[in-house]
Amino acid sequence: MKRLGLLLGIVLILSGSCSDDTCTDNIDTRMLVAITVPDPDLSEEDMTAQLVITNLNWSDSLHFADEHEDQIIRLGLNPAKDTSEFVLFLKNDELMKDTLLLTYTRSAKYISEACGFVQEYSNLQGKHTRNSIDSVKLFNTKITTLDESIHLAIYY
Amino acid sequence: MKAFTWLSIISLSLFLSFAASAQESEQIAVEDTLAKDYWSFESVRLGAEIGKFSDLIFLPERSSYGGSLEVIFSNKHFLTLIGGISSYQDETEKFTYDASGYYVVAGIDRNMLQKDVNDAFTAGLRFGYASFNQHASQINIDAYRWGTYPITMPEEEASALWTELSIGVKAEIFPHFFMGWSVQARLLINSSYNTVEPIDIPGYGQNGSNFRLAARYSIFYTIPFRK
Protein backbone atom coordinates (compact mmCIF):
# COMPACT_ATOMS: atom_id res chain seq x y z
CA MET A 1 0.00 0.00 0.00
CA LYS A 2 2.80 2.33 0.99
CA ARG A 3 4.73 1.83 -2.24
CA LEU A 4 1.56 1.99 -4.28
CA GLY A 5 0.86 5.38 -2.75
CA LEU A 6 4.36 6.53 -3.53
CA LEU A 7 4.15 5.48 -7.15
CA LEU A 8 0.66 6.88 -7.63
CA GLY A 9 1.81 10.19 -6.21
CA ILE A 10 4.69 10.36 -8.64
CA VAL A 11 2.48 9.46 -11.60
CA LEU A 12 -0.09 12.07 -10.61
CA ILE A 13 2.57 14.72 -10.16
CA LEU A 14 3.90 13.92 -13.61
CA SER A 15 0.43 14.20 -15.09
CA GLY A 16 -0.05 17.57 -13.41
CA SER A 17 2.96 19.03 -15.15
CA CYS A 18 1.29 19.42 -18.54
CA SER A 19 1.03 22.97 -19.89
CA ASP A 20 -1.40 24.59 -22.31
CA ASP A 21 -0.33 25.73 -25.79
CA THR A 22 -3.03 28.34 -26.42
CA CYS A 23 -3.11 31.81 -24.99
CA THR A 24 -6.23 32.21 -22.90
CA ASP A 25 -4.98 34.91 -20.52
CA ASN A 26 -5.90 38.56 -20.69
CA ILE A 27 -3.02 40.35 -22.42
CA ASP A 28 -4.70 43.74 -22.92
CA THR A 29 -2.72 46.57 -21.32
CA ARG A 30 -4.47 49.46 -23.02
CA MET A 31 -5.34 52.43 -20.85
CA LEU A 32 -9.03 52.90 -19.94
CA VAL A 33 -10.00 56.50 -20.76
CA ALA A 34 -13.32 58.10 -19.84
CA ILE A 35 -14.64 61.08 -21.78
CA THR A 36 -16.80 63.39 -19.68
CA VAL A 37 -18.61 66.53 -20.80
CA PRO A 38 -19.68 68.50 -17.72
CA ASP A 39 -19.88 71.79 -19.67
CA PRO A 40 -23.65 72.51 -20.00
CA ASP A 41 -23.02 74.43 -23.22
CA LEU A 42 -21.76 71.29 -24.92
CA SER A 43 -23.72 68.22 -25.89
CA GLU A 44 -22.14 65.00 -24.65
CA GLU A 45 -23.79 63.06 -27.47
CA ASP A 46 -22.40 65.37 -30.13
CA MET A 47 -18.94 65.43 -28.57
CA THR A 48 -18.55 61.70 -28.32
CA ALA A 49 -20.02 61.15 -31.77
CA GLN A 50 -17.46 63.50 -33.26
CA LEU A 51 -14.35 62.75 -31.18
CA VAL A 52 -11.31 61.35 -32.99
CA ILE A 53 -7.93 60.41 -31.50
CA THR A 54 -4.84 60.03 -33.67
CA ASN A 55 -1.15 59.36 -33.38
CA LEU A 56 1.56 59.87 -35.99
CA ASN A 57 2.60 56.21 -35.76
CA TRP A 58 -0.87 54.80 -36.31
CA SER A 59 -2.15 53.73 -39.68
CA ASP A 60 -5.72 54.62 -38.70
CA SER A 61 -7.54 56.84 -36.22
CA LEU A 62 -9.54 55.94 -33.15
CA HIS A 63 -13.14 57.05 -33.56
CA PHE A 64 -14.75 57.30 -30.17
CA ALA A 65 -18.23 56.57 -31.49
CA ASP A 66 -17.10 53.23 -32.92
CA GLU A 67 -15.08 51.93 -29.99
CA HIS A 68 -16.56 53.25 -26.77
CA GLU A 69 -18.35 51.30 -24.09
CA ASP A 70 -20.21 53.40 -21.51
CA GLN A 71 -18.23 56.55 -22.42
CA ILE A 72 -14.96 54.64 -21.98
CA ILE A 73 -12.39 53.76 -24.65
CA ARG A 74 -9.26 51.66 -24.57
CA LEU A 75 -6.21 53.66 -25.61
CA GLY A 76 -2.92 51.83 -26.16
CA LEU A 77 0.35 53.52 -25.19
CA ASN A 78 3.43 53.41 -27.38
CA PRO A 79 5.27 50.23 -26.29
CA ALA A 80 8.50 51.40 -27.91
CA LYS A 81 8.92 54.71 -26.06
CA ASP A 82 8.36 56.18 -22.62
CA THR A 83 6.08 58.84 -24.10
CA SER A 84 2.94 58.82 -26.22
CA GLU A 85 1.51 61.88 -27.89
CA PHE A 86 -2.11 61.84 -29.01
CA VAL A 87 -4.03 64.44 -30.96
CA LEU A 88 -7.73 64.79 -30.14
CA PHE A 89 -10.22 66.70 -32.26
CA LEU A 90 -13.86 66.79 -33.28
CA LYS A 91 -14.69 65.78 -36.81
CA ASN A 92 -16.86 68.85 -37.26
CA ASP A 93 -14.18 71.22 -35.96
CA GLU A 94 -10.75 69.91 -36.97
CA LEU A 95 -9.06 73.26 -36.34
CA MET A 96 -9.60 72.99 -32.58
CA LYS A 97 -7.09 70.24 -31.92
CA ASP A 98 -5.76 69.25 -28.52
CA THR A 99 -2.58 67.38 -27.73
CA LEU A 100 -2.36 64.88 -24.88
CA LEU A 101 1.20 63.97 -23.90
CA LEU A 102 1.61 60.97 -21.61
CA THR A 103 4.87 59.86 -20.00
CA TYR A 104 5.42 56.56 -18.19
CA THR A 105 7.85 53.79 -17.28
CA ARG A 106 7.66 50.52 -19.24
CA SER A 107 8.32 46.97 -18.05
CA ALA A 108 7.80 43.67 -19.85
CA LYS A 109 5.77 41.14 -17.90
CA TYR A 110 5.79 37.44 -18.71
CA ILE A 111 2.29 35.96 -19.02
CA SER A 112 2.80 32.42 -20.32
CA GLU A 113 4.66 30.54 -23.00
CA ALA A 114 1.64 30.74 -25.28
CA CYS A 115 0.94 34.43 -24.66
CA GLY A 116 4.53 35.60 -24.33
CA PHE A 117 5.15 39.01 -22.77
CA VAL A 118 3.06 42.14 -22.42
CA GLN A 119 4.23 45.67 -21.80
CA GLU A 120 3.01 47.10 -18.52
CA TYR A 121 3.24 50.78 -17.57
CA SER A 122 3.76 52.67 -14.33
CA ASN A 123 4.41 56.25 -13.13
CA LEU A 124 1.89 57.53 -15.67
CA GLN A 125 1.78 61.33 -15.98
CA GLY A 126 -0.03 63.61 -18.42
CA LYS A 127 0.03 67.08 -19.96
CA HIS A 128 -2.48 68.58 -22.40
CA THR A 129 -3.43 71.68 -24.32
CA ARG A 130 -6.66 73.51 -23.46
CA ASN A 131 -8.31 74.31 -26.78
CA SER A 132 -11.32 72.07 -26.23
CA ILE A 133 -10.19 69.99 -23.27
CA ASP A 134 -10.97 71.56 -19.91
CA SER A 135 -8.93 69.21 -17.71
CA VAL A 136 -7.47 65.74 -17.42
CA LYS A 137 -7.45 63.66 -14.25
CA LEU A 138 -5.39 60.54 -13.56
CA PHE A 139 -7.08 57.90 -11.41
CA ASN A 140 -4.52 55.11 -11.74
CA THR A 141 -0.88 55.64 -12.66
CA LYS A 142 -0.17 51.95 -13.23
CA ILE A 143 -1.51 49.95 -16.18
CA THR A 144 -1.58 46.15 -15.96
CA THR A 145 -3.58 43.30 -17.45
CA LEU A 146 -5.66 43.13 -14.27
CA ASP A 147 -7.11 46.64 -14.45
CA GLU A 148 -10.86 47.09 -14.86
CA SER A 149 -11.38 50.66 -13.67
CA ILE A 150 -10.48 53.81 -15.59
CA HIS A 151 -6.95 55.20 -15.58
CA LEU A 152 -7.63 58.64 -16.99
CA ALA A 153 -10.61 60.94 -17.48
CA ILE A 154 -10.74 63.76 -20.02
CA TYR A 155 -13.17 66.58 -19.24
CA TYR A 156 -14.58 68.88 -21.93
CA MET B 1 -8.68 21.96 -14.96
CA LYS B 2 -5.16 22.39 -13.64
CA ALA B 3 -6.45 23.35 -10.21
CA PHE B 4 -8.62 20.23 -10.20
CA THR B 5 -5.62 18.07 -11.10
CA TRP B 6 -3.60 19.50 -8.25
CA LEU B 7 -6.48 19.20 -5.83
CA SER B 8 -6.80 15.55 -6.84
CA ILE B 9 -3.09 14.98 -6.29
CA ILE B 10 -3.13 16.50 -2.83
CA SER B 11 -6.34 14.75 -1.80
CA LEU B 12 -5.21 11.35 -3.04
CA SER B 13 -1.78 11.80 -1.51
CA LEU B 14 -3.25 12.63 1.87
CA PHE B 15 -5.63 9.67 1.66
CA LEU B 16 -2.90 7.21 0.66
CA SER B 17 -0.52 8.50 3.28
CA PHE B 18 -3.09 8.10 6.02
CA ALA B 19 -4.00 4.64 4.68
CA ALA B 20 -0.34 3.61 4.79
CA SER B 21 -0.06 4.93 8.30
CA ALA B 22 -3.10 2.94 9.43
CA GLN B 23 -1.75 -0.28 7.94
CA GLU B 24 1.58 0.09 9.66
CA SER B 25 -0.09 0.66 12.98
CA GLU B 26 -1.22 -2.98 12.90
CA GLN B 27 2.34 -4.20 12.39
CA ILE B 28 4.35 -2.07 14.72
CA ALA B 29 4.06 -1.96 18.45
CA VAL B 30 2.75 1.26 19.80
CA GLU B 31 5.24 3.39 21.66
CA ASP B 32 4.60 6.03 24.17
CA THR B 33 5.19 8.89 21.80
CA LEU B 34 4.57 11.49 24.44
CA ALA B 35 7.60 10.37 26.37
CA LYS B 36 9.91 10.41 23.36
CA ASP B 37 12.47 13.12 22.84
CA TYR B 38 11.54 14.51 19.45
CA TRP B 39 14.68 16.60 19.14
CA SER B 40 17.30 13.89 19.57
CA PHE B 41 19.80 13.93 16.68
CA GLU B 42 19.44 10.69 14.79
CA SER B 43 20.79 10.75 11.27
CA VAL B 44 21.54 12.69 8.13
CA ARG B 45 19.75 12.09 4.86
CA LEU B 46 21.21 13.00 1.48
CA GLY B 47 18.88 13.33 -1.46
CA ALA B 48 18.96 13.78 -5.20
CA GLU B 49 16.06 15.34 -7.08
CA ILE B 50 14.83 13.22 -9.95
CA GLY B 51 12.35 15.78 -11.20
CA LYS B 52 14.61 16.51 -14.14
CA PHE B 53 13.38 13.30 -15.74
CA SER B 54 9.83 14.65 -15.91
CA ASP B 55 11.19 17.96 -17.21
CA LEU B 56 12.62 16.02 -20.17
CA ILE B 57 9.05 15.09 -21.08
CA PHE B 58 6.92 17.98 -19.88
CA LEU B 59 9.32 20.94 -19.77
CA PRO B 60 12.28 20.26 -22.07
CA GLU B 61 13.19 23.95 -21.95
CA ARG B 62 14.46 23.49 -18.40
CA SER B 63 17.51 21.55 -17.27
CA SER B 64 18.04 21.29 -13.53
CA TYR B 65 20.04 19.33 -11.00
CA GLY B 66 19.20 19.44 -7.33
CA GLY B 67 20.09 17.78 -4.09
CA SER B 68 19.13 17.95 -0.45
CA LEU B 69 20.55 17.53 3.01
CA GLU B 70 18.31 16.69 5.94
CA VAL B 71 19.32 16.60 9.55
CA ILE B 72 16.92 14.18 11.20
CA PHE B 73 15.82 14.43 14.82
CA SER B 74 14.07 11.28 16.08
CA ASN B 75 12.48 10.89 12.63
CA LYS B 76 10.11 13.60 13.80
CA HIS B 77 11.73 16.87 12.81
CA PHE B 78 13.87 17.44 9.75
CA LEU B 79 16.04 20.47 9.17
CA THR B 80 16.10 20.64 5.41
CA LEU B 81 18.51 22.32 3.03
CA ILE B 82 17.84 21.97 -0.69
CA GLY B 83 20.04 23.37 -3.42
CA GLY B 84 20.54 23.11 -7.12
CA ILE B 85 21.38 24.67 -10.43
CA SER B 86 18.96 25.27 -13.26
CA SER B 87 19.04 26.58 -16.79
CA TYR B 88 16.14 27.50 -19.05
CA GLN B 89 16.12 28.05 -22.79
CA ASP B 90 13.00 28.73 -24.78
CA GLU B 91 12.36 29.93 -28.30
CA THR B 92 8.85 30.62 -29.59
CA GLU B 93 7.34 32.97 -32.17
CA LYS B 94 6.98 35.53 -29.40
CA PHE B 95 10.34 35.38 -27.63
CA THR B 96 13.82 33.89 -27.44
CA TYR B 97 14.97 33.68 -23.85
CA ASP B 98 17.59 31.92 -21.75
CA ALA B 99 18.53 31.99 -18.09
CA SER B 100 20.73 30.05 -15.71
CA GLY B 101 21.50 30.20 -12.01
CA TYR B 102 21.24 28.49 -8.64
CA TYR B 103 18.76 28.18 -5.81
CA VAL B 104 18.77 27.28 -2.13
CA VAL B 105 15.76 26.34 -0.04
CA ALA B 106 15.93 25.96 3.73
CA GLY B 107 13.32 25.12 6.31
CA ILE B 108 11.92 22.64 8.76
CA ASP B 109 9.62 19.65 8.26
CA ARG B 110 7.61 17.74 10.84
CA ASN B 111 6.78 14.08 10.45
CA MET B 112 3.05 13.65 10.97
CA LEU B 113 3.23 9.86 11.41
CA GLN B 114 2.68 8.96 15.04
CA LYS B 115 4.47 5.61 15.00
CA ASP B 116 8.20 5.05 15.23
CA VAL B 117 8.79 3.93 11.65
CA ASN B 118 11.47 5.03 9.24
CA ASP B 119 8.94 6.41 6.75
CA ALA B 120 7.61 9.91 6.90
CA PHE B 121 4.60 11.96 6.00
CA THR B 122 5.82 15.50 6.41
CA ALA B 123 4.48 19.01 6.53
CA GLY B 124 6.90 21.89 6.54
CA LEU B 125 7.66 25.54 6.00
CA ARG B 126 10.62 26.70 3.91
CA PHE B 127 12.17 29.77 2.38
CA GLY B 128 13.84 29.79 -1.01
CA TYR B 129 16.27 32.13 -2.74
CA ALA B 130 17.43 32.09 -6.34
CA SER B 131 20.13 34.05 -8.11
CA PHE B 132 20.45 33.84 -11.87
CA ASN B 133 21.38 35.60 -15.10
CA GLN B 134 18.83 36.07 -17.86
CA HIS B 135 19.04 37.19 -21.46
CA ALA B 136 16.51 37.67 -24.25
CA SER B 137 17.75 38.14 -27.80
CA GLN B 138 14.22 39.08 -28.83
CA ILE B 139 10.81 39.57 -27.24
CA ASN B 140 7.94 40.57 -29.50
CA ILE B 141 5.33 42.77 -27.85
CA ASP B 142 2.02 42.91 -29.72
CA ALA B 143 0.30 46.23 -29.16
CA TYR B 144 -3.04 47.16 -30.68
CA ARG B 145 -2.62 49.90 -33.35
CA TRP B 146 1.12 50.10 -32.64
CA GLY B 147 1.98 46.79 -34.24
CA THR B 148 4.60 44.37 -33.01
CA TYR B 149 7.46 45.89 -31.09
CA PRO B 150 10.66 43.86 -30.50
CA ILE B 151 12.59 44.21 -27.22
CA THR B 152 16.16 43.03 -26.84
CA MET B 153 17.40 42.45 -23.32
CA PRO B 154 21.15 42.22 -22.67
CA GLU B 155 22.25 39.72 -20.05
CA GLU B 156 21.21 40.92 -16.63
CA GLU B 157 21.28 39.61 -13.08
CA ALA B 158 18.07 38.72 -11.33
CA SER B 159 17.05 37.19 -8.03
CA ALA B 160 13.95 35.95 -6.27
CA LEU B 161 12.79 35.13 -2.77
CA TRP B 162 9.84 32.91 -1.94
CA THR B 163 8.28 30.87 0.83
CA GLU B 164 6.66 27.48 0.47
CA LEU B 165 4.39 25.21 2.45
CA SER B 166 5.22 21.60 1.74
CA ILE B 167 3.63 18.21 2.33
CA GLY B 168 5.19 14.98 1.23
CA VAL B 169 5.95 11.34 1.84
CA LYS B 170 9.16 9.33 2.08
CA ALA B 171 9.16 5.56 2.00
CA GLU B 172 12.08 3.24 2.68
CA ILE B 173 12.40 1.05 -0.40
CA PHE B 174 15.64 -0.67 0.69
CA PRO B 175 17.49 -0.37 4.00
CA HIS B 176 18.64 3.28 4.26
CA PHE B 177 17.37 4.07 0.74
CA PHE B 178 14.23 6.16 0.45
CA MET B 179 12.07 7.46 -2.32
CA GLY B 180 9.69 10.33 -1.86
CA TRP B 181 7.76 13.21 -3.29
CA SER B 182 6.32 16.40 -1.98
CA VAL B 183 3.99 19.08 -3.22
CA GLN B 184 4.50 22.72 -2.40
CA ALA B 185 2.36 25.83 -2.35
CA ARG B 186 4.88 28.53 -3.22
CA LEU B 187 4.39 32.23 -2.63
CA LEU B 188 6.76 34.61 -4.39
CA ILE B 189 7.75 37.31 -1.91
CA ASN B 190 10.04 39.34 -4.14
CA SER B 191 11.69 39.14 -7.54
CA SER B 192 14.36 41.59 -8.59
CA TYR B 193 15.14 42.32 -12.25
CA ASN B 194 15.85 45.30 -14.48
CA THR B 195 14.04 45.00 -17.78
CA VAL B 196 12.05 41.84 -18.20
CA GLU B 197 10.20 39.71 -15.70
CA PRO B 198 11.91 36.29 -15.49
CA ILE B 199 10.13 33.40 -17.21
CA ASP B 200 11.55 30.66 -15.05
CA ILE B 201 13.03 31.13 -11.58
CA PRO B 202 15.44 28.37 -10.52
CA GLY B 203 13.87 26.35 -7.72
CA TYR B 204 10.59 28.29 -7.86
CA GLY B 205 9.42 27.28 -11.31
CA GLN B 206 7.69 29.10 -14.10
CA ASN B 207 6.87 32.69 -13.31
CA GLY B 208 3.74 34.59 -14.30
CA SER B 209 2.03 34.30 -10.94
CA ASN B 210 3.00 35.10 -7.36
CA PHE B 211 1.48 31.80 -6.30
CA ARG B 212 2.08 28.41 -7.76
CA LEU B 213 1.80 24.75 -6.90
CA ALA B 214 4.82 22.62 -7.59
CA ALA B 215 6.35 19.26 -6.79
CA ARG B 216 9.67 17.65 -6.03
CA TYR B 217 10.45 13.97 -6.16
CA SER B 218 13.69 12.57 -4.93
CA ILE B 219 15.67 9.55 -3.88
CA PHE B 220 17.48 9.59 -0.54
CA TYR B 221 20.20 7.79 1.35
CA THR B 222 20.20 7.96 5.13
CA ILE B 223 23.42 7.90 7.09
CA PRO B 224 22.50 6.75 10.59
CA PHE B 225 24.46 8.28 13.42
CA ARG B 226 22.46 6.88 16.30
CA LYS B 227 19.84 4.15 16.51
Instruction: Give the strand order, joined by hyphens, for the main sheet of chain B.
Output: 1-2-3-4-5-6-7-10
Unreliably modeled segments of chain A: none
What class do helices, strands and sheet pairing of chain B give? mainly beta
Report the major sheet of chain B.
8 strands, antiparallel, barrel
Strand content of chain A: 35-45%
Rg of chain A computed from alpha carbons, rounded to a whole number of angstroms: 22 Å
Rg of chain B over CA atoms, rounded to whole Å, is: 21 Å
Q: Share of helix among residues of chain B?
A: 10-25%
Residue-averaged pLDDT of chain B: 84
The total count of strands of chain B amounts to 10
Question: What is the annotated CATH architecture of chain B?
Answer: Beta Barrel
Structural class determined from secondary elements of chain A:
alpha+beta
Major pleated sheet of chain A: 5 strands, antiparallel
